[in-house]
Amino acid sequence: MSSIDEAVTALSGVQTAKKDGMLGDRDLPVWLSFSLLNSDIVELHSGEKLEDALEKLLGKFPGFINGLFLNCAGLDIITAALPVLIRLGKEHAVDVFGAYANRFAPINNKSPNSIEKSFKEDAHVCNLIDIPEEEYLEQVKTWIKLGCGVVGGCYGMGPKYIEMISKYVESSALGIKSQLP
């Protein structure tokens, strides 16, 4: 989710689907993930602060959100934002946390129109940041120590990144198992 309104709309839809029996007798968990703007302030692409979004959504949907995640942002912004996400999530009985960073060059322009224009003009250009697999794994270890039980990679994180994470999880004494075959 990239804005509070987007998250409210999605959560309201899921809430209605559950209430109206559209999911049958399945009691599926509700996991919510935020895409962050790469900046010095931990904020959504809408410019809203992550902390404000979490407080509003967790207050508006008490006990409804089972998992909170961060994705589609660089390593530094995810690592900076996780303590806020996990602290507020735990205060509202959220029990699953996760993170997926990407390798895209940061978007520094906060204007939605400028961002859309940039994507249209540069759609053929893939500006990936070089992040060694070992460096990514070190950040993932930090995320796990902070409380993430679900970790992986987003755009630009290829199979070698995921394989390294899987091997670490399998070989560590974390008491969790990789979902890779």
Automatic annotation (TrEMBL):
One of its GO terms (biological process) is methylation. The keyword Methyltransferase applies. Residues 1-168 form the Hcy-binding domain. It comes from the Eukaryota. It holds the Pfam family S-methyl_trans. InterPro entries: HCY_dom (IPR003726), HCY_dom_sf (IPR036589). GO terms for molecular function: methyltransferase activity. Pathway: Amino-acid biosynthesis; L-methionine biosynthesis via de novo pathway. The keyword Methyltransferase applies. Keywords: Methyltransferase, Transferase. This is Homocysteine methyltransferase. It comes from Oopsacas minuta. The lineage of its organism: Eukaryota, Metazoa, Porifera, Hexactinellida, Hexasterophora.
